[in-house]
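Example record

The entry below shows one chain as it appears in the dataset: sequence first, then structure tokens.
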Amino acid sequence: MTKDLEFRLETARLVARLMELPALIGELSRQLTALRAERRTLERAAKEAWARAYLAAQGRSKEEREAAVVAELAASPDWRRMQARLEQLAAAIDKAQGEKEALEHERKALYGAIVARHAEALEAALAQRLLTPHGLPPQGRGN
């Protein structure tokens, strides 16, 4: 393969990858939205469970009531499942956010590489006098 053909194929691969990235980023954005919505729902449910347990707790001081709530909720299998799911969601959100940021960085890097290749091609055409600085073919070459 010639060097020019390899250069063109590599540029085509870069462009193809650049065109794939918005769909991948969009899918991660949708996943993040769903994960965050589930997290908010669970956080609301946990807050309500805490409030119900606090109102039902016996104790003279705030500290005694909070200790009773912690003990009661720690014994609840539903509370433990809810807390475990919140931890899973936090990890999944962090992972998806990291992947999205990596894809966005790749998109920007690919765009920059393609722009740089385009600039190189234009500079080469200008240097060979195939184009004038205005983007037109030069006059007097048998046109």
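Notes for this example: The chain has a mean pLDDT of 90. The helical segments are 3-56, 62-75, 77-127.
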